[in-house]
Amino acid sequence: MESSLRSCSCSTLMSSKDRLKEALRLKEGELLNVGVSLLDVTDPNVRVTLQECWATPESSPGHDLRHDLINDACGVPGVLDNTLDIVSNGDSRMAKWHGSVFKFVGYENVWLHCNIKVCFADQDKGSKIKKR
To answer: CA angle at residue 73 from 130 to 31, to 5 degrees?
Structure first.
């Protein structure tokens, strides 16, 4: 079974306003690698934290049908058949996670959405920025 996933992988650079011209085609069960970073930021003291990430079957982040992946900067227990692994979150300029590809029954696409927090290494408080 093949699923169409509209998001970015670690090898695809895009900003929150970019849209893929073609959907990435991944099969259920394949490993999806996701990386979120700030473009053109070279300061080594910048830290990106994924506060929450979720998937929806359509582009709207507020869609009624959603699958939570990360909440309060931690992976949701049991999500993605226990394959979700947060590789890096809040300790560098790039936050990364990976997990098995899935699909919503009755839908062709999966959209990923994340809310991130950006801080400097010596600051406890960051500003929330929405990134899709």
So the answer is: 90
